[in-house]
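Reader question, answered in our methods column.
A reader sent in the components of a multi-part assembly and asked whether the whole thing could be modeled at once rather than chain by chain. We filled in our standard form and ran it. Here is what they sent:
COMPLEX SIZE: two components
ENTRIES:
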Amino acid sequence: MIENIGIEKFVILSTLMFFIGVYGFLVRKNLITILISVEIILNSVNINFVAFNKYLYPENLQGQFFALFIIAIAATEASVAIAIFVTLYRRIKMIDVENVNKMKY
Amino acid sequence: MEIFNITGIIPIILFASFLFTGLAGGRLKPMVSGITGTLSIFIVTAVSYYTAYKYFFEFGKAGNEYIKIIPFNLMWLQFNDTLFINMGILLDPISVMMLIVISTVSLMVHLYSLGYMKGETGFARFYSFLSLFTFSMISLVISTNLFQTYIFWELVGISSYLLIGYYYSKPSAVAASKKAFIVTRFADLGFLIGILILSYITKTFEYTTLTDPNGSAINQGSSVLFLGLSAMNVTLILIFIGCAGKSAMFPLHIWLPDAMEGPTPVSALIHAATMVVAGVYLIARLFPLYIFSGADALNVIAFIGTFTSLFAALIATTQMDIKRILAFSTISQIGFMIMSLGVSGYGDTNGLGFTASMFHLFTHAMFKALLFLCAGAVIHAIHLNNLNEMGGLRKYLPVTHITFLIACLAISGIPPFSGFFSKDEILTAAFAKNKLIFTTALITAGITAFYMFRLYFGIFWNKEVKYDKTPHEAPKTMTTALIILAVGSAITGFIPFGNFVSSNGVPLESHIHFEIAIPAVITALVGIFVAYIFYKKENNLPVRVSSAVGGLYGIIYRKFFIDEIYIFITKGLIFRFISGPVVWFDRHIVDGTMNGIAFITNLVSEKIKYFQSGQVQQYAYVMLSGIIIIVITVIYILSNL
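And here is the structure of the entire assembly that came back:
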């Protein structure tokens, strides 16, 4: 069924997701939403990897492997980030990114 | 020569002993280190005597002449086809003779120290350093080339430094060790430059090439000029500066009296018998070079040697510390050896000075080591080394008394003790060359007898001092060493030394020269007699005489103000006018530049740090805009290509 969908659809989807992620990253103040935005960026990249793998070199699997790696890294990154958020919350009782500026100089 | 391969184990044994006592010594009982060191030096002594026997009586002679034998010689560093540094063993009469001197005295000192140093902290360290010293000294004398000599020359310097500073918690010992190291190191600078120029001129480091009378080194060398002088003369004087530093010749003698801060056995081994004669040995080693292309250098050597011997003998008459008296006596006797080399010619009876110098080196090593060890026994018994505070010790220390007397007679040149024979040859050689040198040497010999017997009477006769504890004779290990060395001092004079050691290897028939010997012995007896009147019984004669000559006595007592002159030159001139500005430049210009850079960086960053808001999203904006700008630019450029 995938044969019926052109590659440009996937590229458009991933570009949209990427910029949605970037927008969220820049605009949202809550650290958890920022983390979710980062995940969206990563997943847009994943879509690109898998799509190009399928369309350009269907006999190879490197792109899919990369996608798997990125998923694993995203998971670890999320766990570390959330651990940081929890500690941060215990200290300053909020997780707004604007208030995390104690270490500037 | 296959047989001499065994000589190669000498340095190996000593180095192994150094490593063992140095690394494991701290964890073992102190005596284990002492016995290891003594045993290894015992083996070394046996091998040395074996080598000497084989060399002098079986394999050393080719025809009528003693030749240089090189059992092995390995290339160690190669600079180019002609210039390379080897490591090897060279056996010839003087190196074999030095092997005997070093191993014998070292064995005696090791044995003696078992008693003397007992209970000291760092006993193992002491033996480890002694092994290191003996290793470097023996390797020095059996070197096949100048550079190998230089390496071990520095090693004996460092072991001397370590042993002078043995009591490192005593500030005076630390100062003395630093002084010794810096002064000799300063002199070694001359030596190094000398080696470099010499190798530049002659294209070799090897002794066999350098000292071959018909060889290329001597023929080429004399034609090179430097500032109108023969370059060889300059070079050889530079090498002599190194020798003067090690052998404590005026004006580089100042370190040796202070070096007496070390333990007494060390003074006996290093600062009397072996290391300080390294300079004499080196001149003897390069002797053909000095004779054939450095006649002026040899004259300088003769005069410096003569002057030093008189100068040090005069100071020795006024000193109060018994070890210092012996130190100045050592300087004076080394002056004799150096002078004797300086007045020597080459070959046959002309070369008497060379033989005499080596002979005196040999006998001096015996009796001066003995004197120091006796002084050590005295210090061991009463824990004092000021001559004023001792006296009447002959009842308490009979063995020390007799052996000390033998050594004093030997150094004064009274027949039939060893010093008589060697001194006689030195005076004969000096007489043949230069009457001024001869007269000075004769006077010095008289002064030598005087100050040695001043010491002898001062310690063993004179006033009866009440000691806090009754002094006891030293333990057996110490007295054994004393007795063996006393026998050596008494009889080594009868060795027909010229048969073995001579300037060109051909045996030299030596006999006593009565026309020289009789005045010399009379002078010595006068010296002894004066000392007898002055110091046998306590009286006020010495005080009256010294106050009669007042100012002169003061000048001599203060060692001719040489130390003060050094202090003035170093502190007053060099530190103030050279080091001072250099320090100022370093503190203000060099440090200032660096501090200025840091200060400016700090200032600028203080100003610009407020750009940082700490807002992560702001940074992300900036980064993203940067990326977008870069991407647009790249696309624009690429589309316009």
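What stands out: Chain A touches chain B at residues 22, 25-27, 97-98, 100-105 (CB under 8 Å). Chain A has a mean pLDDT of 88.
Send us your own complexes using the same form.
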